[in-house]
Amino acid sequence: MKLRTVCVIALLFCALVISAFISIKKAVGPDTAVSFKIDTLVTNVIVPWQITFLPDGTMLFTERAGRVRIYRNNKLLPKPALTVNDITLDKKTGLLGMCLHPAFAQNKWIYIASNYTEDNHIRVRVARYEFRNDSLINPFTIIKSIPGNQNHTGCRLVFGPDKKLYITTGDADQPALAQDLKAYNGKILRVNDDGSIPADNPFTKNDTAHKEIWTYGHRNPQGLAFEPGTGVLFNSEHGPTGGDEINIIKPGQNYGWPVIHHQDTREGMISPLLEYTPSIGPSEAGFYNGNAFPELKGNLLVACLRGESILRIRLNNDKPVTQEVLLKKQYGRIRSLVVGPDGYLYISTSHYDPPEGKGEPPFDMILRLRPSNEKVKQQVQSIAINKKTTVKKQTPAFMFQQLCAACHGDHLQGTEKTKSLLGRNFAHGADKASIVKNITNGITEKGMPAWRGAISAADINKIADYVWVTSKRKK
User: Fold this and answer.
1) Which is an annotated GO molecular function term of this record (predicted)?
2) Which residues, 6+ apart, have CB-to-CB distance to 374 below 8 Å?
């Protein structure tokens, strides 16, 4: 009798396991699979940072080198709509985000972010232009003098359903600025279409804060997307070494950088909805709301740079259900991703992107993704929703791995960004005191962040000890 009971229980357990497996397979099964036909529209351009469409179907895109280009009737027009003459080009800087005013059909306004130099420092500026006769004219400054840097300079532009302009800013390789409400860096800003301050911004009554701030504690947010129907705002942002994030953005909230990152938690700070280690380098994000790909309806799609793919996230009541990567390693680094008026997906590559991208011909491209009925083998990889990792002790080696290894390598062996430090091969001082100084103040012109105020002096000293001891090892 006992044996029969045990067998029945075992059978029931197996049935539950099998049914659970079937339900999981159904969520990611063939009915939600997507196949693409891919057309190459534009080649030999330099980092098409942002693609956008006019109401008549004309495509505009920014080239980081300082040009706004026009693609119409299957042709790239030779004359740019705009050439920004004071553009500052240094690794990740240049011409960045672009968006149309919600009433573009009436006022012809287009908003563009760019880097420029002011008092020998890189800055970020957002300006409004009028699009007339295929030219962008009459620039009007919305906001300027935001500190920029060759890394972590933002800058995505999106109008919300409230008709306010949302602007992302990076921490400019000075992580402490992300927590400073007197600084524009490491923030999402919200302004009226003329740059004035909306009365309902969360810090309008705070005398020690910039009134444009909507949220803070960001490292380098690259994507902003409002969910159709709900108006919920999502962002994508780069982490330090891994720790890339997808967040739900709520006004006035602190998203933690650099105090918390990866899956850290702290009272009063928001941990990410999704976190990615190793890094995927999330860039532009957007919800699919077209009709060409019904299987993608309502999915959040994210262009991935380091991941060289498109991240597809299915949500249920703003909670992630499943996620997968599409086109992995097929077209290299993907910078912009938008839905065209035809419901097709349009993506841009980011190959001319030192030091990660090598800029090999045909340099950068704009591609169109159309539905395919053919059983074309697509590079698709399902990935798990993040599981909470065990909190590790904040040892010097662990802090180095999370904050420094992306540039210096797991064992100080160097990366495409930096040379090896093994054998104490230092370029900026040859003793421990110099290491402490460099970690504290950064070498921002070389892309090394300044950690003063972001982590404690005691932790800086511990990391310096770790570097000093580990670097003694020969190559």
Assistant:
1) heme binding
2) 35, 37
Q: What is the count of structural domains for the chain?
A: 2
Ramachandran class of 127: left when φ > 0, alpha when ψ lies in -120 to 50, beta otherwise? beta
Segment (H or E) for 422: none
User: Phi/psi at 11 (nearest 5 deg)?
Assistant: -65, -40
In a shared domain, residues 367 and 403: no
pLDDT tens digits for 276-308?
A: 999 999 999 999 999 999 999 999 999 999 999
Helix 396-403 and helix 457-470: axis angle, to 10°?
Answer: 90
Give every CB contact of residue 71 below 8 A, 6+ residues apart in sequence.
Answer: 41, 42, 58, 59, 60, 61, 77, 366
Which H or E run includes 438?
helix 432-441
Residue ranges of E strands in 46-160 = 48-53, 59-63, 67-72, 75-76, 82-83, 95-100, 109-118, 121-132, 135-147, 157-159
Residue 406 contacts residue 241 (beta carbons within 8 Å): yes
Cα 388 from Cα 93, distance rounded (Å): 35
* Cα separation, 370 vs 435, whole angstroms: 52
**Could you read off the pLDDT of 69-105 as tens digits, one per residue?**
999 999 999 999 999 999 988 888 999 999 999 999 9
Environment class of 428 (CB within 10 Å of its CB; exposed 0-12, middle 13-18, buried 19+): exposed
Residue 4 located in a structural domain: no
Domain that holds residue 405: 396-470
The two tokens of residue 341 are: 């008026």
Q: Are 106 and 245 in the same domain?
A: yes
- Distance CA(269)–CA(247), nearest Å, equals 12
DSSP character at residue 342: T
In this structure, what token pair is assigned to residue 69?
């280009």
Q: Is 50 helix (H, G, I), strand (E, B) or coil?
A: strand
Confidence of residue 465 (pLDDT cuts 50, 70, 90): confident
Is position 152 annotated as part of the catalytic site? Answer: yes
Taking phi over 0 as left and psi of -120 to 50 as alpha, with beta for the rest, 292 belongs to alpha
Q: Are residues 138 and 174 in the same domain?
A: yes
Give this prediction's pTM: 0.87
Tokens of 38: 């891919």
Average pLDDT over residues 402-412: 79
Which residues does 125 contact at the CB level (< 8 Å), separation at least 6?
Answer: 113, 114, 115, 116, 141, 143, 144, 145, 146
Q: Which of 121, 152, 351, 408 is catalytic?
A: 152
Q: How far apart are CA 148 and CA 155, in angstroms?
A: 10
Exposed / middle / buried, residue 15 (Cβ in 10 Å: 0-12, 13-18, 19+): exposed
